Fold this sequence. Notes:
Blueprint: H1 3-13, H2 15-20, H3 29-44, H4 48-58, H5 68-83, E1 87-109, E2 113-114, E3 138-139, E4 144-152, H6 158-166, E5 175-179, H7 187-194, E6 199-203, H8 206-209, E7 231-232, E8 270-273, H9 275-284, E9 310-331, E10 336-346, H10 354-376, E11 383-390, H11 393-396, H12 398-406, H13 408-414, E12 415-420, E13 427-433, H14 438-446, H15 457-467, H16 472-479, H17 495-501, E14 506-513, H18 527-534, H19 539-557, H20 566-598, H21 607-610, H22 627-648, H23 658-667, E15 689-691, E16 699-701, H24 703-710, H25 714-739
Parallel strand pairs: 3-7, 4-5, 5-6, 6-8, 10-11, 10-12, 12-14
Antiparallel strand pairs: 1-2, 1-9, 4-9, 9-11, 13-14, 15-16
Helix pairs in contact: 1-3, 3-10, 3-19, 4-10, 10-19, 12-17, 15-16, 20-22, 22-25, 23-25, 24-25
Amino acid sequence: xxxxxxxxxxxxxxxxxxxxxxxxxxxxxxxxxxxxxxxxxxxxxxxxxxxxxxxxxxxxxxxxxxxxxxxxxxxxxxxxxxxxxxxxxxxxxxxxxxxxxxxxxxxxxxxxxxxxxxxxxxxxxxxxxxxxxxxxxxxxxxxxxxxxxxxxxxxxxxxxxxxxxxxxxxxxxxxxxxxxxxxxxxxxxxxxxxxxxxxxxxxxxxxxxxxxxxxxxxxxxxxxxxxxxxxxxxxxxxxxxxxxxxxxxxxxxxxxxxxxxxxxxxxxxxxxxxxxxxxxxxxxxxxxxxxxxxxxxxxxxxxxxxxxxxxxxxxxxxxxxxxxxxxxxxxxxxxxxxxxxxxxxxxxxxxxxxxxxxxxxxxxxxxxxxxxxxxxxxxxxxxxxxxxxxxxxxxxxxxxxxxxxxxxxxxxxxxxxxxxxxxxxxxxxxxxxxxxxxxxxxxxxxxxxxxxxxxxxxxxxxxxxxxxxxxxxxxxxxxxxxxxxxxxxxxxxxxxxxxxxxxxxxxxxxxxxxxxxxxxxxxxxxxxxxxxxxxxxxxxxxxxxxxxxxxxxxxxxxxxxxxxxxxxxxxxxxxxxxxxxxxxxxxxxxxxxxxxxxxxxxxxxxxxxxxxxxxxxxxxxxxxxxxxxxxxxxxxxxxxxxxxxxxxxxxxxxxxxxxxxxxxxxxxxxxxxxxxxxxxxxxxxxxxxxxxxxxxxxxxxxxxxxxxxxxxxxxxxxxxxxxxxxxxxxxxxxxxxxxxxxx
Length: 743
């Protein structure tokens, strides 16, 4: 069928849709029909079968950073982009990457046990027995050879150590064993090290993603006893990327610091294991029975441990500099070539990585193929479209971070947006990012159909939010809502350097929620697992390609970029109210604790509580003056309302000022960067969004203030209020420049 006939059929089939769509933000009403025609032509060029074949092809061999398989995957992606008609280059950095050469874990007493540290192959999984697989390990663990008593620390998070302190149990000089889950894995050894432990073991308890969740692999999707989650334990909340080239691109001749001076690397050895190897260790522990909520699903009573169970942990690594292959592909814009719509997904995996990351990478390639076909119809975008396939995301966001650090000034001048995906599966739309994009994402989501229910992905997500609301008031509010809120972004994928270091407005889009399993970072993250349990038929790969494809196409061709800052005001105002409530709660709790101590209520508590030592008394909470931030928000609210009204009423915008308006719009978020960065981790500069210092991937909003309150550092909290208020005032001044251009 010729492209002209396909184009005519597309117009006919979507005539009813055109009549229903009155506006697309950023487009003149007269241009809506043409834009929808382009998008629907794009949709008709997407193929679930192609996406499945790409997943199978790119996950056929192990392809971690620095491996021969990794280079093959990068070159395959490069070749694909070239065949689609994109201008393509291989962007190479040289980064530190440790791989294991010694892994030994053995129980020395009260009985002998040597951990097998091996995931077996299964006949149901064609790639599970391949050579070239990275064994299960935690990248950025320190080398170490330690023998010490073992202590169980539940999930190894701050509340767990608070409980251990109250129980009078110290981990100093001990090896701790912690469950995977409830937080990012790197927080567990970080806290263990801070509390004086000499080693850390992380295991997957069947209560979380094993047999209590469902049938285990290969019969079902969930983690079997041998499955082990690999992963990085770099302290990325300090800074991501190559640890020995902080703040600069890791080019071949870059200046490198000594590894021992890298502030984000651990000093203790860390090893992940499956619950097959964890069981004899945990079963041998004696001492106190674990507190309520700590018991896992293994068939015995869990104990915290004493000095009777001793383990030997020995780890050594190859600390090599390896090539990191980013693929950068571009369609040059014909009106605004120096305004870049950027889209990325990483291509490296811990092993075969069919779900993480190849499912997202395959969708991205299908988008690129369809855009290449659009070029053949005569379409060209107004703005340049830049697609990026990153290497080295798994160990430390290496490819993306080095690229951003290497091109920082150019990105801050030209990058309109960075749109990220990672793994993808069956289920619901998960959308996070810069809140000024909320209107646009809702418009896009309203026009994409969910393949299971045949309603829009927007309507399906709204339905999920409604049924998951707690309480009548929340459910009543949810059921009347007609748009989804973007979530705030922490870390864990390649948007982090763009958003939190460079201030480039960013989005992270994916589907999931009906694809649960235990394959994450194991050898079983394979094509066979993916096609059976994650996205049978690869339908949600097409949905992701449509969602991000429409977003890219609209941003590339909008006359006025669809930023709407009222949503950003609403988000920051909500975060501020949360902080006021947090400090008020902290103050009240402190007063109540003081009263409890004064009346000796700890001594009258239950037998269980008598075993616990009272926490150290906390100092009174001083008054924190939020008025500078609240006043900045009042002014910002007035400005955003006026600006959104101006942008929605296109007739009030002088056509000749469009270029100036757009430049001010897409560089506005840079005003929210703190000149000195966050306290103790200046690489992170965004005043609104950051990964938490003790949550890792989990976001902390208004982090300079929130974390100071949580850590009871009142001087820093007061300074944070001032710094964030200054940032919002800078942003407000930038937006007022746009209002000054009004006709």
